[in-house]
Amino acid sequence: MPTSPLRVGVVFGGASGEHDVSIRSASTVIKALADPSNRERFQVTPLYIDREGRWWPDTIAKRVLERGAALTDDQLPQPLPACGLRQLPVDPDQIDVWYPVLHGPNGEDGTVQGLFTLMQQPFVGSGVLGSAVGMDKLAMKAAFADAGLCQVPHIGVNAADLNNPEQLERLLIRLEKELGYPCFVKPANLGSSVGISKVRNRDELLAGLRLAAKLDPRLVVEQGVTARELECAVLGRAHLKASVVGEVRFDADWYDYETKYTEGRSQTLIPAPLPDAVSQRIQAMAVAACRAVHAYGQARVDVFYDEANGQIWLNEINTLPGFTSQSMYPTLWEASGIPLPQLVAELVATAQE
Q1: Of 136, 171, 178, 320, which sits most exposed with the smallest number of CB within 10 A?
Q2: What is the pLDDT of residues 9-23, one digit of tens each?
Q3: CA–CA separation, 122 vs 342, rounded Å?
Q4: 330 burial type by CB count under 10 A (0-12 exposed, 13-18 middle, 19+ buried)
C-alpha cells in the first residue's frame, strides 16, 4: 500500500534585511523537494512572511516565488492586516514538518523555532538555543571559548558605552592596546557582512563603532588576521557529519557585503586546495562548533587558516545558511556526494528524528 506524501510547510521571506536572499533560497529548496526523485515523498505548501512580518498563504507565496521578489503592499490583499503574526495562514494539522528558509533576525535567531516548538511540531534545523546562540556573535564566541575552540582575539562592546565620553575613551584605549590595528567592528546580530567595518586608525574605529551601534546594541571587535577564508557544511542530528572544505577567494581588501553579492568579485574553490590533515582538522572543528552551541540539522561553519604557521581560527557558525543555487552549503554537499534533492530529503528526515 503506498504511503501518503509527507506534508512540508516551507516558510520564507521574513522581517529581516535578508528577505530577498530568503526568497531565492526557498525557490531552490522547493524545486529540490519537487524533484522527480522526491515527487511522491513530499507535498509542499509554501508560506510567505512579508517584510512587516505578516504571514500569507500559498496563493500569495507562489506569486512571490514566480516573481522572485517581494510583493509591494499594494500588490497584497487589502485591507492589510496588522503587522506581525496574527494567525497562521494554514491549519497546522495540514503540515507534518515545517521547513524554515529564513535568514537573519526573526527567522534564524530562535524566534520562529520557538513558535514551532510551542506548536509541538517538527521542523528542519536547530532548536531555540542553537539558533539564538548561533545568531549572536558574542554569545557564540563565549560558547566556543567554553568549548576550548581557538578564535581570533576579540572584545565585546555595549553600544551604550559610546554615549559616555569617559567610558568611550577607556574603551578605545583598551581596543588599541589589546587588539591593535587593523581590526574589524561588527554588530553582534546581523548576517551577510551588514554593518561590518575594517578599521585602521582611531577615527575609523570610532566611525565603525557608531555605524554598528545604529544596527545593534551589542557589538564585537575582532583583531585582523592575514588568513584564508574556509567554510565547511554540517548535516545531521544525533550524528553530525562534515562536508569537504571550500574556500572563498575575493578581489577586495576583505569579504564585505558588496564583494559577497557582486558577480565576479569573489570565487569559491571546492574542495579547497589544502593538505588532508588540515581539511580533517577543519571538519572536526566544524562538528565541535555545532556541539558547542547545540546546533543540529544544518549549519555552515566558517574558519580562518594561516598557511604560514598552520594556525586555524574558528570564525562563526551559520545555523540557517543561504540555500540559493550558488550558496556554499548545498554546493559543499554536492561536492561531497550528496546532490541537492537528496540533501533536502535528508534535512527533512533530521526534523523527524
Answers
A1: 178
A2: 999 999 988 899 999
A3: 19
A4: buried
| C-alpha cell recorded at residue 215 | 544596527
> Residue 246 carries which side chain, given as an amino acid letter?
G
DSSP 74: G
**Whole-angstrom Cα distance, residue 102 to residue 9?**
13
Q: Are residues 196 and 262 in the same domain?
A: no
- The Cβ of residue 201 has, within 10 Å, a number of other Cβ atoms equal to 10
Q: Residues with Cβ < 8 Å from 185, sequence gap 6 or more?
A: 196, 197, 199, 205, 208, 209, 211, 212, 219, 220, 221
| Residue from 241, 230, 303 nearest 268 by CA | 230
**CB contact at 8 A, 78 and 25:** no
Number of domains present in the structure of the chain: 3
Cell numbers 500500500: residue: 1
Are residue 14 and residue 107 in the same domain, yes or no?
Answer: yes
Phi, psi of 158 (to 5 degrees): -95, 125
Half-sphere CA count of 156, side-chain side, radius 13 A: 12
Domain that holds residue 14: 6-124
Instruction: Give the CATH number, domain containing residue 85.
Output: 3.40.50.20
At residue 256, does pLDDT exceed 60? no
Report if pTM > 0.90. yes
Q: Give per-residue pLDDT as tens, 289-335.
A: 999 999 999 999 999 999 999 999 999 999 999 998 889 999 999 99
